[in-house]
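hey m, so remember when u said the tokens were messed up on ur end? i reran from scratch. heres the input so u can diff it against urs
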Amino acid sequence: MRTAPGDTSKSWDAFYAHWVKPVVHFGTPTLVVFAVLMALAVIATPLLVAANTPGVRSGSKRAGWALRDAYWLGVLCLVLSAIEATIVFPLSRNVPWARHAPWTAGVSIGLITAATIVGFSLIVVVGKPRPENRSVLQWGIAGLCLIAAILIAGVFAEIGPSHWPSAWLGGKLAAVIYALVLAALGVGIVARTRGIGMGLLIQGHDKTGADDAGLGAFVRARLYSLGSQQPKGILVTQQTDTSTLPSGALGLIPAGTLAKLAALFVSLFTPPTPWRVDVTEQGDGSVVVAVRRNRQVADAAVIRPSSLELPSTQANGGSAAADAGDSTPAAGPDVLAGDTGGSGGDWTTELRTAAATFTLLALSKRYDHLKAGLCGATDWRSVALQVIAADPASQLTTKDKHAVLVHAVADDRGNKAAELALLNDCYRTASSSSDLSDFAAKLEELLKKLPDNEGALPLSLRSRFNMIVAYVNYAASLTPAQLGQADTQRAADGALRKAKKQAKFLLRFWSQDANQNKFPALYQSMYAAVNFAAEAIGVERYRSLHKRFSIHGVLNDSELQSRVNMTLLARYEHACVLNRGRQKQGTDKAEEYGEAVAELAIAVADPAILMMARTDPSLAELHDVDQVRQACAAPNGTRRQREDAAANAFEVAARFKDLVGEPVPADFLSLSPFAAYRDALALRGIHDAARLWRTPGPRLRSELSITRGEVARWREVTSLHRMAGAYPAASGNGNRATQAVFLLLKADLDSVSAVRSALTSPEQLRKNLRGLAEGWAVVAPGEDEIGAWGRHLGVPQP
């Protein structure tokens, strides 16, 4: 009686006998031989690929696909070799009449021919510099392919007439020869492609030598940002311009024995990883990096703060930049930006960044496509210092960043990205026409020295943008008196024409879809800034020279915002355009000033832009309330209109100064002469200048234990406050009077007699106070305010 379980059992037995057992019988030896051959390929890899063997020169996807296809061709050769050795040869040996099937001989010969060509290319072509006479190489490869085609055609002609090929192609000895040749070629191709690949594993170790997954993950992330991300940065390079390091090639060695065994098993089915990086943090704070390629040490270094010349090696947070001998003007500490002159001692982040940079430079020595994006840099220390200085999260002070960039250029004069960063750092606060002219000239020289390759193209774009800014600011820095001279007019016109040339180049470059797709991040961040910078050229030419020209390709605001991001630098450039415009007058110009300040309020969220705004010639008039008042005044306006213009001007200047300046004391008793006694005065009910003025001197001396000289100085400063309050705009606004006294104290005018003497030259006093107010959140007194002081003190006005 038949039952379902019985039928199932018989079916399984039949399936096992006819399918499973033959596969196991024939397949197991084949798998064993294949595994042995793959192991031989792994063992042979260091023999065929040395630590310094060049890798694939191109970082394109096509080159990666070609290398992957070559690898799988080698694997296929090993599979067929195993089949020839474990199936075809035993059958022909044990069965006297058995011979090769025609297709097996044909496939073996075809694979041998293809593998020979690929092997020749891997050894002779891949990784080697392109010969000057490329036709010789091209004809050589073409000839080899022609010979292979003739050979394969002859073989198939021999096989075609009969079912079996001739004995010399299908005999017992042929199977052995095919197996050996396929094995040799397969091992060579697999070993070679494994060895020159870019797969990389990173493992971190802590101070005890144990695995540190966090350290490994940090270095991998930093290496990804340095070598795999699209170029970023408008004025300077933020990381590097290398973007051809495959992100999928960066892996981590997991912690734990079982995890490592699992990763080893998975690696059999994933792209090879010939590179291994071990990063170990030491107890003394240093980091040891060892880069191995195919189990051979390719590079190693011990990275310390001293080897990077970070400020921790200098006394009191100082730096050795002063001895570098650079001809460019040095950038001093920016107290107004919060620099204290000190430096921290924890350089963990910087040292880990240097470890990633060291790894990238070690790879770039073997892969030319990585070298291109380094813009001529060959020293890892130089690149590491450049990246550290450009990092917004860096703990370095402004002075220390300048010193770091000086060292970056000194360590590697070929590092053009560091050279541009140093130039930008030296001249970012330049405001004189001579400094701006020098900046533009040095940018022109740098542009000529850039490497002629695609990797240096982003740096070329940045240099051209910086040139536009330098040329426009040069024209903006010239005074009306200077522009009255013919030579200066020609120089200004020449600078603006050079700026126009660079703007046209950038606008034309970014108008092409191919370039937008090639550098999408740079396009999104740079295009709007370039557009407004191009617009600023025409605005400045009309304002300075009363001449017009237009630049084709400049978009209006609505078109621009629909296409690209409005970056902070783009908003800053837009603010400069609005500020310098002279198409509007009166209340319309006051509104335009308001729009400029509104754009600037967003842009100065970037500390670097904040520093530029303080000294930018394109914004210089916002420091001068008289210039703003004249622009806001209506032609032939009434007295009421003039008063409104003055009020609007002060409001615009005050808003601007509040944005870009360092805060000043908010009340009178916070000024330097009284700050130490502020709390004691408050306990006695003295909170402002009026109460201090009414307090008898003997009481102040006895209760506060101060000298007669100090009381006399307090009386003088209080008198200055009363003088400043005489200006109608300051009446009822004690803070304005306090701000004016703050500036007078900065000018060492701390007595009525000193101010009376200075008022004999009111224009010079106005210029001095304007210069002192540049970095502070206080509007420098204008002509009307200084005139009110003179009238209060009875000083005759010129």
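this time it looks ok to me. The beta strands are 200-205, 250-252, 275-281, 287-293, 296-303. if urs says something different then somethings off w ur setup not the seq
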